[in-house]
Design a protein that fits this description.
The chain is mostly helical. The protein has one domain. Helices cover about 45% and strands about 5% of the residues. The protein has 3 helices and 2 strands. The chain has helices at about 10-35, 45-55, 95-105; strands at about 85, 90. The chain has a two-stranded antiparallel ribbon. A hairpin with a 6-residue loop joins strand 1 and strand 2 (about 90). Helix 1 (about 10-35) packs across helix 2. The protein is globular. The chain starts with 8 loop residues before the first helix and ends in a 19-residue tail after the last helix. Bound molecules: zinc ion. The site of zinc ion has 8 residues, from helix 3.
Length: about 120
């Protein structure tokens, strides 16, 4: 306890090396998913696609314990113990769930490009 996930050695490695390369790999797959799933639909901004893709990754066994895509904090090991976003097809930490609910009461939504996940977006 005490230390935040990103302050631990494992967290540091994750955020500085594993997550950026994961995001890079995801970016390469985005177009494939896009063609398969949004065929004939209006094109969504890349930030939204990244979040949707992350939502799929969360359900893959090998990708357990991913940080919250909205704020970067550690999430509960069981996906269902976290919050499901009201606006994007992805699980977020319960703090973010509360924050989303609060922002909703203000008629406000955090834009996808301000999500933690999208702060790692890299240009090829
Ligand atoms: Zn969060």
């Amino acid at each position: 306890m005490g230390l935040q996930f990103h302050e631990t050695v494992r967290g540091k490695i994750f955020f500085e090396h594993q997550l950026p390369s994961l995001i890079k790999a995801l970016n390469r797959f985005v177009d494939v998913f896009e063609m398969k799933e949004h065929h004939g639909m209006q094109e969504e901004p890349e930030e939204k696609r990244m979040i949707a893709l992350y939502g799929k990754m969360q359900k893959i066994e090998g990708f357990k314990n991913l940080p919250c895509p909205r704020c970067g904090k550690e999430m509960r090991p069981e996906l269902a113990d976290n919050s499901y976003s009201r606006h994007e097809p992805v699980y977020i930490c319960s703090d973010c769930g509360t924050d989303e609910a609060f922002m909703d009461t203000q008629g406000d939504v955090m834009p996808p490009d301000e999500w933690f996940l999208n702060s790692f977006k890299q240009e090829e």
